[in-house]
Predict the structure.
Amino acid sequence: MRGVVLLSGGLDSGVAAALFAAHSGQQLVAAVFCDYGQRAAQPEHAAATRLAQRFGVPLTVLALPWLGTLARAAGSALLAGGGELPRGTAARPGDAASAARVWVPARNALFVAAAAAVAESCGADAVVAGFNREEAATFPDNSAEFVAAATALLRLGTRSGVRVVSPTLAFDKPQIQAAALRLGFTAADFWSCYEGGAQPCGTCESCLRSRFAR
């Protein structure tokens, strides 16, 4: 199986890519990073570039400014001008309300479709994504149901029948962190913060869920 990985620069997508490539008969051939004007676009892009180099694959950067415009209009806090980011605690990093504050309209549906187009163009048969069961509790586009539905869509929407695979789908964050350590990653390999500062903020939902040690 030949895969195109959706690389956000974060922990989940990096570990998913490494797990996919570690399996016999599976090969990463390309990576895709989506820039829609999110607060953390710059450090995410830098991390995605490093990860793509680590995996030895070219990185395609998709500029989606129109998605950022829609997200801002919808009030997403992931965009500058979208209001304050929700803050959590290690015990309660996020909930349905905080998920609603950072929701970007149809984001993963769009990202998967875009990566499928890249996959079809280069003869790959899979889109690799870092979904997980912990975030699926509040973000339905991280769920097993989403993966199955997206695969069904792409079966009809691509001539080659590109499928969606997520090696981290059944994992929670501690399991993904443990896998990252086994694979030789460190926290410095990723950018998993909603903010775009010089250092991760440590208090947004993504930071609280993705840190290596709590």
